[in-house]
Design goal:
By secondary structure, the chain is α+β, with helices and mostly antiparallel strands. It has two domains: 219 residues, set domain protein methyltransferase, domain 1 (Alpha-Beta Complex); 144 residues, no CATH class. Helix 3 crosses helix 7, helix 13 packs antiparallel against helix 15 and helix 14 packs antiparallel against helix 15. The longest helix has 26 residues. It is globular, with a radius of gyration of 24 Å. The structure holds S-adenosylmethionine. S-adenosylmethionine binds next to strand 5, helix 7 and strand 7. InterPro entries: Rubisco_LSMT_subst-bd_sf, SET_dom, SET_dom_sf, SETD3_SETD6_MTase. One of its GO terms (molecular function) is methyltransferase activity. This is SET domain-containing protein.
Length: 456
Amino acid sequence: LPHRGAVNAAASVGSRTSSVESTNGGVDVDPLISKFPILVEWFRRHGGTIDDRVEIGYESGTNIRGTIANADIPPDTVIMYVPRSLIMGGVDWCPDVETLRGEIELGSRSKWHEYLDFDDSSGSRLPLEWDRNGDAVRELQVHPPDGNIYHHLDWFAGEWGCVAGGGGGGRGKEMTDLDFRAFKIVLTRAMDEGLVPMYDLMNHHNGKINTYIKVDDEGGVYVVSLLDIPAGFPIYNTYGRSGLQSTNALFGIYGFVEDYPQLWQWSDDELDRLSEEDEHHAYDRYVTFDKYYYYDNDENDGDDDERPYHSGGWANKLDLEPNSPLYEVLVISPTLAALLPTKHLTGVLGNGQLSVEGWRKEIDYHHATLHSSHVDSIYDSAMRTLDSLPTTIEEDEEIIQKHEMVRSEELKDERVNAIPADTLMAIKYRLAFKKALRLTMDVATREAFYNETDEL
Ligand SMILES: C[S@@+](CC[C@H](N)C(=O)[O-])C[C@H]1O[C@@H](n2cnc3c(N)ncnc32)[C@H](O)[C@@H]1O
Protein backbone atom coordinates (compact mmCIF):
# COMPACT_ATOMS: atom_id res chain seq x y z
CA LEU A 1 0.00 0.00 0.00
CA PRO A 2 1.58 3.29 1.01
CA HIS A 3 5.14 2.96 -0.14
CA ARG A 4 6.17 5.99 -1.94
CA GLY A 5 8.78 8.61 -2.72
CA ALA A 6 11.17 9.91 -0.18
CA VAL A 7 9.73 8.21 2.83
CA ASN A 8 9.30 4.96 1.01
CA ALA A 9 6.97 4.00 3.50
CA ALA A 10 2.33 1.84 5.44
CA ALA A 11 -1.96 -0.28 14.20
CA SER A 12 -2.18 -2.28 16.33
CA VAL A 13 -4.38 -5.07 17.30
CA GLY A 14 -4.07 -4.57 20.98
CA SER A 15 -4.06 -0.80 21.01
CA ARG A 16 -7.17 0.18 19.10
CA THR A 17 -9.56 2.22 21.16
CA SER A 18 -13.09 1.01 21.42
CA SER A 19 -15.71 3.41 20.15
CA VAL A 20 -19.05 1.83 20.78
CA GLU A 21 -21.79 4.34 21.41
CA SER A 22 -25.19 3.66 22.84
CA THR A 23 -28.31 4.79 21.03
CA ASN A 24 -31.55 5.93 22.58
CA GLY A 25 -33.03 2.52 22.03
CA GLY A 26 -30.38 1.03 24.30
CA VAL A 27 -28.90 -0.94 21.38
CA ASP A 28 -25.15 -0.53 21.01
CA VAL A 29 -24.19 1.06 17.73
CA ASP A 30 -20.60 1.18 16.56
CA PRO A 31 -20.15 4.21 14.27
CA LEU A 32 -17.02 2.60 12.81
CA ILE A 33 -19.42 0.14 11.20
CA SER A 34 -22.84 1.78 11.19
CA LYS A 35 -21.74 4.79 9.12
CA PHE A 36 -20.68 2.59 6.21
CA PRO A 37 -23.95 3.05 4.22
CA ILE A 38 -23.40 6.83 4.38
CA LEU A 39 -19.91 6.34 2.91
CA VAL A 40 -21.26 4.03 0.19
CA GLU A 41 -24.00 6.51 -0.74
CA TRP A 42 -21.40 9.34 -0.95
CA PHE A 43 -19.03 7.15 -2.94
CA ARG A 44 -21.65 6.18 -5.54
CA ARG A 45 -22.97 9.74 -5.79
CA HIS A 46 -19.46 10.81 -6.85
CA GLY A 47 -19.09 8.16 -9.54
CA GLY A 48 -17.55 5.27 -7.56
CA THR A 49 -18.85 1.73 -7.97
CA ILE A 50 -18.86 -0.88 -5.24
CA ASP A 51 -20.30 -4.37 -5.31
CA ASP A 52 -23.21 -4.89 -2.89
CA ARG A 53 -21.41 -7.96 -1.55
CA VAL A 54 -18.76 -5.76 0.09
CA GLU A 55 -19.42 -4.99 3.72
CA ILE A 56 -17.45 -3.57 6.62
CA GLY A 57 -16.92 -5.54 9.80
CA TYR A 58 -14.41 -6.80 12.33
CA GLU A 59 -12.26 -9.77 11.48
CA SER A 60 -13.46 -12.66 13.56
CA GLY A 61 -12.16 -12.56 17.12
CA THR A 62 -10.34 -9.23 16.66
CA ASN A 63 -10.89 -5.50 16.77
CA ILE A 64 -9.46 -5.03 13.29
CA ARG A 65 -12.02 -3.34 11.05
CA GLY A 66 -11.96 -4.15 7.35
CA THR A 67 -13.84 -5.21 4.23
CA ILE A 68 -15.70 -8.53 4.33
CA ALA A 69 -17.76 -10.36 1.68
CA ASN A 70 -21.42 -10.82 2.70
CA ALA A 71 -21.99 -13.33 -0.15
CA ASP A 72 -19.73 -15.38 -2.45
CA ILE A 73 -17.76 -13.26 -4.90
CA PRO A 74 -16.47 -15.18 -7.93
CA PRO A 75 -12.97 -14.60 -9.38
CA ASP A 76 -12.39 -11.70 -11.78
CA THR A 77 -15.25 -9.62 -10.34
CA VAL A 78 -14.67 -5.87 -10.27
CA ILE A 79 -15.33 -5.35 -6.57
CA MET A 80 -14.96 -1.61 -6.70
CA TYR A 81 -13.94 1.20 -8.99
CA VAL A 82 -12.62 4.49 -7.63
CA PRO A 83 -12.56 7.26 -10.24
CA ARG A 84 -9.59 9.64 -10.23
CA SER A 85 -11.95 12.47 -9.19
CA LEU A 86 -12.49 10.70 -5.82
CA ILE A 87 -8.79 10.16 -5.18
CA MET A 88 -7.08 12.80 -3.06
CA GLY A 89 -3.46 13.76 -3.69
CA GLY A 90 -1.06 11.41 -5.45
CA VAL A 91 1.49 14.15 -6.16
CA ASP A 92 4.12 13.70 -3.47
CA TRP A 93 4.37 13.53 0.29
CA CYS A 94 4.32 17.20 1.21
CA PRO A 95 1.61 18.40 -1.22
CA ASP A 96 -0.51 15.34 -0.35
CA VAL A 97 -0.32 15.95 3.40
CA GLU A 98 -1.05 19.63 2.77
CA THR A 99 -4.10 18.83 0.61
CA LEU A 100 -5.42 16.48 3.26
CA ARG A 101 -4.89 19.06 6.03
CA GLY A 102 -6.88 21.54 4.00
CA GLU A 103 -9.75 19.10 3.48
CA ILE A 104 -9.84 18.20 7.18
CA GLU A 105 -9.99 21.91 8.01
CA LEU A 106 -12.92 22.39 5.63
CA GLY A 107 -14.98 19.99 7.76
CA SER A 108 -18.45 19.35 6.36
CA ARG A 109 -17.68 21.67 3.42
CA SER A 110 -15.07 19.23 2.11
CA LYS A 111 -15.96 17.02 -0.83
CA TRP A 112 -14.31 14.21 1.17
CA HIS A 113 -16.23 14.89 4.39
CA GLU A 114 -17.99 11.48 4.46
CA TYR A 115 -14.70 9.74 3.70
CA LEU A 116 -12.82 11.60 6.41
CA ASP A 117 -15.67 11.08 8.85
CA PHE A 118 -15.35 7.31 8.43
CA ASP A 119 -11.57 7.34 8.92
CA ASP A 120 -10.34 5.52 12.00
CA SER A 121 -6.60 6.19 11.75
CA SER A 122 -6.49 7.93 15.12
CA GLY A 123 -7.76 4.71 16.74
CA SER A 124 -4.58 2.88 15.82
CA ARG A 125 -1.21 3.23 17.48
CA LEU A 126 2.03 3.28 15.50
CA PRO A 127 5.52 2.57 16.87
CA LEU A 128 6.55 6.09 15.82
CA GLU A 129 4.08 7.32 18.47
CA TRP A 130 5.96 5.53 21.25
CA ASP A 131 7.71 7.61 23.91
CA ARG A 132 11.31 7.94 22.73
CA ASN A 133 12.64 7.27 26.24
CA GLY A 134 9.94 4.85 27.26
CA ASP A 135 9.79 1.14 28.05
CA ALA A 136 8.47 0.04 24.66
CA VAL A 137 11.61 1.16 22.82
CA ARG A 138 13.81 -0.55 25.42
CA GLU A 139 11.72 -3.71 25.33
CA LEU A 140 12.17 -4.16 21.60
CA GLN A 141 15.57 -5.78 22.33
CA VAL A 142 16.09 -6.75 18.68
CA HIS A 143 17.14 -4.42 15.88
CA PRO A 144 14.45 -1.78 15.55
CA PRO A 145 12.38 -2.33 12.41
CA ASP A 146 13.83 -0.53 9.41
CA GLY A 147 16.77 0.64 11.53
CA ASN A 148 14.81 3.27 13.43
CA ILE A 149 11.10 3.39 14.26
CA TYR A 150 11.04 7.21 14.16
CA HIS A 151 12.60 7.38 10.70
CA HIS A 152 9.43 8.45 8.81
CA LEU A 153 8.36 10.93 11.46
CA ASP A 154 11.84 12.42 11.77
CA TRP A 155 11.97 12.93 8.03
CA PHE A 156 8.49 14.47 7.93
CA ALA A 157 9.20 16.88 10.79
CA GLY A 158 12.87 17.44 9.98
CA GLU A 159 15.00 19.72 7.86
CA TRP A 160 14.09 18.02 4.57
CA GLY A 161 10.51 17.23 5.46
CA CYS A 162 7.13 18.83 5.02
CA VAL A 163 6.65 20.95 8.14
CA ALA A 164 9.78 22.68 9.35
CA GLY A 165 12.17 22.04 6.51
CA GLY A 166 12.90 24.35 3.60
CA GLY A 167 14.44 21.54 1.56
CA GLY A 168 11.42 19.31 1.30
CA GLY A 169 8.79 22.00 0.73
CA GLY A 170 8.18 22.62 4.41
CA ARG A 171 6.58 25.75 5.81
CA GLY A 172 9.25 26.48 8.40
CA LYS A 173 6.83 25.76 11.23
CA GLU A 174 6.42 23.57 14.27
CA MET A 175 4.37 20.44 13.73
CA THR A 176 0.77 20.78 14.91
CA ASP A 177 -1.66 18.00 15.90
CA LEU A 178 -3.38 18.50 12.56
CA ASP A 179 -0.08 18.09 10.66
CA PHE A 180 0.51 14.86 12.54
CA ARG A 181 -3.01 13.59 11.91
CA ALA A 182 -2.68 14.21 8.17
CA PHE A 183 0.79 12.66 8.11
CA LYS A 184 -0.46 9.53 9.87
CA ILE A 185 -3.37 9.10 7.46
CA VAL A 186 -1.12 9.46 4.43
CA LEU A 187 1.51 7.13 5.91
CA THR A 188 -0.91 4.32 6.73
CA ARG A 189 -3.55 4.67 4.01
CA ALA A 190 -2.20 6.19 0.78
CA MET A 191 -0.99 4.28 -2.24
CA ASP A 192 1.08 5.77 -5.07
CA GLU A 193 -2.10 7.16 -6.66
CA GLY A 194 -2.98 9.05 -3.45
CA LEU A 195 -5.67 8.50 -0.83
CA VAL A 196 -8.15 6.12 -2.45
CA PRO A 197 -11.51 6.01 -0.62
CA MET A 198 -13.07 2.55 -0.13
CA TYR A 199 -9.97 0.77 -1.44
CA ASP A 200 -8.18 1.85 1.73
CA LEU A 201 -10.64 -0.08 3.90
CA MET A 202 -8.95 -3.35 2.94
CA ASN A 203 -6.55 -4.87 5.44
CA HIS A 204 -3.25 -6.57 4.70
CA HIS A 205 -2.76 -10.34 4.40
CA ASN A 206 -0.14 -11.84 2.11
CA GLY A 207 -1.24 -15.43 2.81
CA LYS A 208 -4.94 -14.87 2.16
CA ILE A 209 -4.64 -12.15 -0.46
CA ASN A 210 -7.71 -12.33 -2.69
CA THR A 211 -7.69 -9.13 -4.77
CA TYR A 212 -5.48 -7.28 -7.20
CA ILE A 213 -5.44 -3.69 -8.38
CA LYS A 214 -5.62 -2.18 -11.84
CA VAL A 215 -5.10 1.51 -12.53
CA ASP A 216 -6.68 2.93 -15.69
CA ASP A 217 -5.23 5.60 -17.98
CA GLU A 218 -7.05 8.36 -16.10
CA GLY A 219 -5.66 7.17 -12.76
CA GLY A 220 -8.88 5.48 -11.58
CA VAL A 221 -8.38 2.39 -9.40
CA TYR A 222 -10.11 -0.97 -9.93
CA VAL A 223 -10.10 -3.67 -7.25
CA VAL A 224 -10.66 -7.11 -8.78
CA SER A 225 -11.13 -10.47 -7.03
CA LEU A 226 -8.18 -12.78 -7.63
CA LEU A 227 -10.09 -15.92 -6.75
CA ASP A 228 -13.36 -17.00 -5.17
CA ILE A 229 -14.06 -15.01 -1.98
CA PRO A 230 -16.53 -16.99 0.13
CA ALA A 231 -19.30 -15.28 2.10
CA GLY A 232 -18.05 -14.07 5.47
CA PHE A 233 -14.42 -13.94 4.36
CA PRO A 234 -12.31 -10.76 4.62
CA ILE A 235 -11.41 -9.04 1.36
CA TYR A 236 -7.66 -8.49 1.55
CA ASN A 237 -5.08 -6.23 0.03
CA THR A 238 -1.31 -6.33 0.38
CA TYR A 239 0.91 -3.61 1.86
CA GLY A 240 4.13 -5.41 0.96
CA ARG A 241 4.16 -6.94 -2.49
CA SER A 242 6.87 -9.16 -3.99
CA GLY A 243 9.19 -9.07 -0.98
CA LEU A 244 9.66 -5.30 -1.19
CA GLN A 245 8.59 -4.81 2.44
CA SER A 246 9.78 -7.08 5.21
CA THR A 247 7.70 -8.07 8.22
CA ASN A 248 10.05 -5.85 10.24
CA ALA A 249 9.36 -2.84 8.00
CA LEU A 250 5.58 -3.37 8.07
CA PHE A 251 5.69 -3.44 11.86
CA GLY A 252 7.78 -0.27 11.88
CA ILE A 253 5.12 1.58 9.90
CA TYR A 254 1.79 0.08 11.00
CA GLY A 255 2.56 -1.58 14.33
CA PHE A 256 1.26 -5.07 13.55
CA VAL A 257 3.19 -8.30 13.08
CA GLU A 258 1.76 -9.77 9.93
CA ASP A 259 0.40 -13.28 9.81
CA TYR A 260 2.25 -15.97 7.79
CA PRO A 261 3.93 -15.74 5.39
CA GLN A 262 6.43 -13.46 7.10
CA LEU A 263 9.64 -12.12 5.62
CA TRP A 264 12.18 -11.31 8.34
CA GLN A 265 15.38 -9.42 7.57
CA TRP A 266 18.43 -8.52 9.61
CA SER A 267 22.12 -7.84 9.25
CA ASP A 268 25.36 -7.93 11.22
CA ASP A 269 28.82 -6.37 10.99
CA GLU A 270 30.20 -9.22 8.91
CA LEU A 271 27.40 -8.97 6.34
CA ASP A 272 27.73 -5.18 6.22
CA ARG A 273 31.45 -5.58 5.51
CA LEU A 274 30.83 -8.12 2.72
CA SER A 275 28.21 -5.86 1.12
CA GLU A 276 30.62 -2.95 1.16
CA GLU A 277 33.41 -4.99 -0.41
CA ASP A 278 31.23 -6.48 -3.14
CA GLU A 279 27.75 -5.25 -3.89
CA HIS A 280 26.99 -8.52 -5.67
CA HIS A 281 28.11 -10.76 -2.84
CA ALA A 282 24.58 -12.08 -2.24
CA TYR A 283 24.47 -13.56 -5.76
CA ASP A 284 27.03 -16.15 -4.68
CA ARG A 285 24.46 -17.77 -2.42
CA TYR A 286 23.05 -19.97 -5.14
CA VAL A 287 24.41 -22.69 -7.39
CA THR A 288 24.60 -21.21 -10.88
CA PHE A 289 26.89 -23.58 -12.75
CA ASP A 290 26.23 -25.17 -16.14
CA LYS A 291 24.19 -28.02 -14.83
CA TYR A 292 21.33 -25.61 -14.14
CA TYR A 293 21.93 -23.37 -17.11
CA TYR A 294 19.37 -25.17 -19.27
CA TYR A 295 16.75 -23.04 -17.51
CA ASP A 296 17.64 -20.33 -19.99
CA ASN A 297 15.82 -22.35 -22.60
CA ASP A 298 15.68 -19.71 -25.26
CA GLU A 299 19.21 -19.40 -26.62
CA ASN A 300 18.03 -17.27 -29.52
CA ASP A 301 15.97 -14.70 -27.69
CA GLY A 302 18.67 -12.08 -28.12
CA ASP A 303 18.86 -11.26 -24.44
CA ASP A 304 21.77 -13.55 -23.65
CA ASP A 305 23.83 -12.13 -20.89
CA GLU A 306 26.35 -9.60 -22.08
CA ARG A 307 28.52 -10.42 -19.08
CA PRO A 308 28.35 -14.21 -19.03
CA TYR A 309 30.82 -14.49 -16.18
CA HIS A 310 28.97 -12.11 -13.98
CA SER A 311 27.16 -14.35 -11.58
CA GLY A 312 24.37 -11.80 -11.08
CA GLY A 313 23.46 -11.98 -14.76
CA TRP A 314 23.43 -15.74 -14.72
CA ALA A 315 21.46 -15.84 -11.55
CA ASN A 316 18.74 -13.57 -12.93
CA LYS A 317 18.12 -15.91 -15.80
CA LEU A 318 17.82 -18.84 -13.50
CA ASP A 319 15.33 -17.14 -11.17
CA LEU A 320 18.19 -17.03 -8.69
CA GLU A 321 18.35 -13.36 -7.89
CA PRO A 322 18.52 -12.75 -4.14
CA ASN A 323 15.54 -10.84 -2.74
CA SER A 324 17.93 -8.66 -0.76
CA PRO A 325 21.57 -8.62 0.31
CA LEU A 326 20.49 -8.99 3.96
CA TYR A 327 20.03 -12.12 6.04
CA GLU A 328 16.51 -13.09 5.25
CA VAL A 329 14.06 -15.84 6.14
CA LEU A 330 10.66 -16.38 4.56
CA VAL A 331 8.50 -18.06 7.20
CA ILE A 332 5.51 -20.01 5.86
CA SER A 333 4.45 -21.78 9.08
CA PRO A 334 5.97 -22.46 12.53
CA THR A 335 7.94 -25.32 10.95
CA LEU A 336 8.46 -24.31 7.30
CA ALA A 337 10.79 -21.57 6.07
CA ALA A 338 13.00 -20.64 3.14
CA LEU A 339 16.45 -19.35 4.04
CA LEU A 340 17.89 -16.53 1.96
CA PRO A 341 14.97 -16.51 -0.49
CA THR A 342 15.29 -15.50 -4.12
CA LYS A 343 13.09 -12.89 -5.80
CA HIS A 344 11.40 -15.83 -7.49
CA LEU A 345 10.17 -17.07 -4.09
CA THR A 346 9.27 -13.69 -2.59
CA GLY A 347 7.53 -12.84 -5.89
CA VAL A 348 4.58 -14.88 -4.64
CA LEU A 349 4.00 -12.50 -1.74
CA GLY A 350 0.98 -10.26 -2.22
CA ASN A 351 0.43 -11.54 -5.75
CA GLY A 352 -1.33 -14.82 -5.09
CA GLN A 353 -1.86 -17.70 -2.72
CA LEU A 354 0.27 -20.82 -2.51
CA SER A 355 -0.64 -23.89 -0.45
CA VAL A 356 1.76 -25.20 2.20
CA GLU A 357 2.49 -28.15 -0.14
CA GLY A 358 3.18 -25.69 -2.96
CA TRP A 359 5.59 -23.74 -0.75
CA ARG A 360 7.23 -26.99 0.42
CA LYS A 361 8.04 -27.94 -3.18
CA GLU A 362 9.38 -24.49 -4.05
CA ILE A 363 11.48 -24.41 -0.89
CA ASP A 364 12.94 -27.89 -1.48
CA TYR A 365 14.10 -26.80 -4.91
CA HIS A 366 15.41 -23.51 -3.51
CA HIS A 367 17.37 -25.12 -0.67
CA ALA A 368 18.91 -27.63 -3.09
CA THR A 369 20.49 -24.69 -4.95
CA LEU A 370 21.59 -22.79 -1.81
CA HIS A 371 25.28 -23.11 -0.88
CA SER A 372 25.71 -24.63 2.56
CA SER A 373 28.43 -22.08 3.42
CA HIS A 374 25.80 -19.32 3.20
CA VAL A 375 23.44 -21.43 5.27
CA ASP A 376 26.20 -21.67 7.90
CA SER A 377 26.53 -17.87 7.93
CA ILE A 378 22.83 -17.22 8.47
CA TYR A 379 22.74 -19.97 11.13
CA ASP A 380 25.68 -18.38 12.99
CA SER A 381 24.15 -14.93 12.80
CA ALA A 382 20.73 -16.15 14.02
CA MET A 383 22.41 -17.97 16.92
CA ARG A 384 24.60 -15.00 17.88
CA THR A 385 21.59 -12.66 17.75
CA LEU A 386 19.45 -14.96 19.90
CA ASP A 387 22.27 -15.51 22.40
CA SER A 388 22.83 -11.78 22.75
CA LEU A 389 19.24 -10.98 23.78
CA PRO A 390 18.32 -10.52 27.43
CA THR A 391 15.26 -12.83 27.37
CA THR A 392 14.51 -16.13 25.67
CA ILE A 393 11.48 -17.13 23.62
CA GLU A 394 10.12 -19.10 26.56
CA GLU A 395 10.56 -16.15 28.94
CA ASP A 396 8.77 -13.82 26.50
CA GLU A 397 5.93 -16.30 26.15
CA GLU A 398 5.62 -16.43 29.91
CA ILE A 399 5.58 -12.62 30.17
CA ILE A 400 2.72 -12.45 27.66
CA GLN A 401 0.84 -15.29 29.32
CA LYS A 402 1.07 -13.57 32.72
CA HIS A 403 -0.12 -10.35 31.14
CA GLU A 404 -3.19 -12.09 29.69
CA MET A 405 -3.95 -13.50 33.15
CA VAL A 406 -3.48 -10.11 34.80
CA ARG A 407 -5.76 -8.54 32.20
CA SER A 408 -8.58 -10.89 33.07
CA GLU A 409 -7.92 -10.19 36.77
CA GLU A 410 -7.85 -6.49 36.01
CA LEU A 411 -11.45 -6.64 34.88
CA LYS A 412 -12.31 -7.58 38.43
CA ASP A 413 -9.70 -5.55 40.27
CA GLU A 414 -8.58 -2.18 38.92
CA ARG A 415 -5.45 -2.11 41.12
CA VAL A 416 -3.73 -4.82 39.10
CA ASN A 417 -1.68 -3.36 36.27
CA ALA A 418 -1.29 -5.08 32.93
CA ILE A 419 1.65 -4.33 30.62
CA PRO A 420 1.07 -0.99 28.83
CA ALA A 421 -0.08 -1.43 25.22
CA ASP A 422 3.08 -0.05 23.56
CA THR A 423 5.36 -2.29 25.59
CA LEU A 424 3.17 -5.29 24.84
CA MET A 425 3.43 -4.51 21.11
CA ALA A 426 7.21 -4.39 21.43
CA ILE A 427 7.34 -7.72 23.29
CA LYS A 428 5.08 -9.42 20.75
CA TYR A 429 7.26 -8.12 17.93
CA ARG A 430 10.53 -9.28 19.47
CA LEU A 431 9.00 -12.69 20.25
CA ALA A 432 7.89 -13.20 16.64
CA PHE A 433 11.35 -12.15 15.43
CA LYS A 434 13.07 -14.54 17.84
CA LYS A 435 10.86 -17.39 16.65
CA ALA A 436 11.92 -16.65 13.09
CA LEU A 437 15.58 -16.73 14.19
CA ARG A 438 15.09 -20.04 15.97
CA LEU A 439 13.31 -21.51 12.95
CA THR A 440 16.22 -20.34 10.80
CA MET A 441 18.56 -22.38 13.00
CA ASP A 442 16.25 -25.44 12.92
CA VAL A 443 15.88 -25.36 9.15
CA ALA A 444 19.62 -24.80 8.66
CA THR A 445 20.31 -27.86 10.84
CA ARG A 446 17.77 -30.32 9.53
CA GLU A 447 17.37 -29.62 5.80
CA ALA A 448 19.55 -30.50 2.80
CA PHE A 449 21.45 -27.75 1.01
CA TYR A 450 24.02 -27.67 -1.75
CA ASN A 451 27.26 -28.89 -0.29
CA GLU A 452 30.33 -27.22 -1.78
CA THR A 453 32.39 -30.40 -1.60
CA ASP A 454 30.02 -31.95 -4.18
CA GLU A 455 31.09 -29.24 -6.56
CA LEU A 456 34.70 -30.34 -6.75
C1 LIG B 1 -5.44 1.12 4.92
S1 LIG B 1 -6.03 0.90 6.51
C2 LIG B 1 -7.01 -0.54 6.39
C3 LIG B 1 -8.42 -0.37 6.92
C4 LIG B 1 -8.53 -0.05 8.39
N1 LIG B 1 -8.43 -1.27 9.20
C5 LIG B 1 -9.83 0.67 8.71
O1 LIG B 1 -10.66 0.14 9.45
O2 LIG B 1 -10.01 1.77 8.22
C6 LIG B 1 -4.55 0.41 7.31
C7 LIG B 1 -4.68 0.14 8.78
O3 LIG B 1 -5.45 -1.05 9.00
C8 LIG B 1 -4.91 -1.82 10.07
N2 LIG B 1 -4.49 -3.13 9.52
C9 LIG B 1 -4.43 -3.48 8.24
N3 LIG B 1 -4.04 -4.75 8.10
C10 LIG B 1 -3.85 -5.23 9.33
C11 LIG B 1 -3.42 -6.49 9.86
N4 LIG B 1 -3.13 -7.51 9.06
N5 LIG B 1 -3.33 -6.62 11.21
C12 LIG B 1 -3.62 -5.59 12.03
N6 LIG B 1 -4.02 -4.37 11.60
C13 LIG B 1 -4.14 -4.19 10.26
C14 LIG B 1 -3.76 -1.01 10.60
O4 LIG B 1 -4.28 -0.21 11.65
C15 LIG B 1 -3.37 -0.13 9.44
O5 LIG B 1 -2.73 1.05 9.84
